[in-house]
């Protein structure tokens, strides 16, 4: 995995680079602002960009939008001290595949980062809950009966997978453990769900399922 770090704090970049390098992850560049992050991403074509939000010149949100159009193959994960809900929602809408807080334990951070390389969203349970609640607020309850038909072509197992995604189980390994099946079988079901609903990512599947009433938002 090739990673680009974008953060305006040199000491934090140093520590993060050391952590990643110690676990065999190649750091291909470091940027101190969003403008430099976009420039380096164009030049280095990293697999993952770890992006802070508050940076000089060009902030993280603007950089995410630029990366989405200029380096769409790069997966952006926000790594920030801000647990503000608006920052979370705006980052995901801008195109980030994940949103992690800087106080996250290193073991959990590395585990989530590994999932990102496979296209899995990087969200801790608490932040995933906030995101799902926001999506639930935008769900049109009145369209439930008609919209549920949009999931009628899903098999029972595919519905189980989708329900677990909405409940906050987003990692392939966790889905496999919950369902008692292999990770390859989980990936097979996920591909079928995305194909049948004409979607491109697990985050889109969660949003679609809530918006169209295919799966109800789980209670606290």
How would you sum up this structure, described in words?
- The protein has 220 residues and is of the alpha/beta class.
- It folds into two domains: 2-123, Response regulator (Rossmann fold, 3-Layer(aba) Sandwich); 135-211, Response regulator (Rossmann fold).
- Helix content is 53%, strand content 12%.
- The protein has helices at residues 10-22, 34-44, 60-70, 85-94, 106-116, 125-137, 144-147, 156-166, 172-179, 183-197, 202-211, and strands spanning 2-6, 26-31, 48-51, 75-80, 98-101, 122-123.
- Strands 2-1-3-4-5-6 form a six-stranded parallel β-sheet, with helices on both faces.
- Strand 4, helix 4 (85-94) and strand 5 form a beta-alpha-beta unit.
- The chain is globular and about 50 Å long.
- The protein starts with a strand and ends in a 9-residue tail after the last helix.
- The model is unreliable at 139-149 (pLDDT under 50).
Which terms would index this structure?
220 residues; alpha/beta; Rossmann fold; 2 domains; six-stranded parallel sheet; 53% helix; globular
Summed up:
The protein has 220 residues and is α/β, with parallel strands linked by helices. The protein is built from eleven helices and six strands.
In terms of topology, how is this protein built?
Layout: E1 2-6, H1 10-22, E2 26-31, H2 34-44, E3 48-51, H3 60-70, E4 75-80, H4 85-94, E5 98-101, H5 106-116, E6 122-123, H6 125-137, H7 144-147, H8 156-166, H9 172-179, H10 183-197, H11 202-211
Parallel strand pairs: 1-2, 1-3, 3-4, 4-5, 5-6
Helix pairs in contact: 2-3, 8-10, 9-10
């Amino acid at each position: 995995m090739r990673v680009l770090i974008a953060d305006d704090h040199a000491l934090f970049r140093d520590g993060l680079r050391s952590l990643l390098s110690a676990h065999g992850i190649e750091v291909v560049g470091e940027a101190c602002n969003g403008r430099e992050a976009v420039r380096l991403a164009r030049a280095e074509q990293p697999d993952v960009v770890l992006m802070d939000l508050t940076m000089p010149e060009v902030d993280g949100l603007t950089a995410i939008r630029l990366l989405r159009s200029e380096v769409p193959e790069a997966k952006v994960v926000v790594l920030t001290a801000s647990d503000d809900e608006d920052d979370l929602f705006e980052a995901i809408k801008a195109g980030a595949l994940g949103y992690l807080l800087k106080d996250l334990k290193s073991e959990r951070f590395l585990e989530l980062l590994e999932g990102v390389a496979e296209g899995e969203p990087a969200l801790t349970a608490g932040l995933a809950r906030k995101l799902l609640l926001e999506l639930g607020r935008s769900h049109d309850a009145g369209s439930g009966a008609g919209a549920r038909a949009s999931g009628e072509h899903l098999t029972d197992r595919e519905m189980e997978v989708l329900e677990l995604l909405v409940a906050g189980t987003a990692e392939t390994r966790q889905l496999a453990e919950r369902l008692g099946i292999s990770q390859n079988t989980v990936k097979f079901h996920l591909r079928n769900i995305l194909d049948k609903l004409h979607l491109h990512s697990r985050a889109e599947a969660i949003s679609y399922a809530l918006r169209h009433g295919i799966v109800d938002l789980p209670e606290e």
